[in-house]
User: What shape does this take?
Amino acid sequence: METRQPAQHVSLVATREVIIGTLTGLHDVFTCFGALGWFDEALSRHPPFTVDIVATGEGPLTLDAGLSLLQTRSVEEVSHTDLVIVPSFMVVDGEWQTGRYPELVDWLLAMHAGGATLCSACSGTLLLAETGLLDGREATMHWAYADTFRRHFPQVTLALEKTLIIEGEHQELVMSGAASSWQDLALYLVARQLGSAVAQAMAKFYAFDLHSDGMAAYRVFSPRFDHGDAAVERAQRWIAHHLDCHSPVERMAAGSGASERSFQRRFLKATGYSPIQYVQALRLEEAKRLLERTSRPIDAIAWAVGYEDPAFFRRLFKRQTGITPGGHRRKFHVPGATCPP
Assistant: This one.
């Protein structure tokens, strides 16, 4: 006779800004057992999870997206849970406002103290960081919100290229990167509780595409211009239109009127990048755009963005993004789309 393990209780956190696709996708994953037994015997078992959607207050929760969540529990009703997942939020204007959910933050801390594993998907890491549990640790999240995260939580080290990060003395803090990497989070949690065979069966049924190459290929480089250094800003504006320049750092320094050493210090202070790192980031961002939106040969793209040696360009691209230029083109090709030459 099969010995049944007690079902783990999963709490999915909801606020008005929650992205419904992430929330319902996670709900589907943790409640599909039993119904999918016909598909793979690994999924044919007593449901190993019970799932609640929790929020502050009582009654239906109306989301900013215009939908209502009818079946939610107040956090005041949930005194114990095994697994908490904070799904992604739509952060208005890209700026996180701290202190809006003190009840949720207190509840997260209480659940952690009671032994729960706390997880976040994408921008949900912003709320998780308000607990202070990530201070002095590494975290990942959606790259688009990196600036607001760093301003509010300077004690946390962001590793945006990582798909999953597991932290804590008991590996009880788990975070996933941008957007659909919530699927990686869900499969990791299922495998951790039930084994890899169950997670693999689920990945096949839902056709989840794991982000084994990391998140760097998805990241868009968005340089800062609000630093207040006019000479550095002029250099940034100039290089954006001269990516094929063969000595970009020297040319930018000469245009600033400062010595090269002084210019490099000012540039790093203003932008957070050394001049050569900044140039490389701009060049690779333009290369990604050309790979995605044109059918130009890779060597021609390398030359267009300032690299005379296509082999060096390929190595640099792979090192910075985790994928080859050809792999990037295939990854972001939309079936049926035609690209101009």
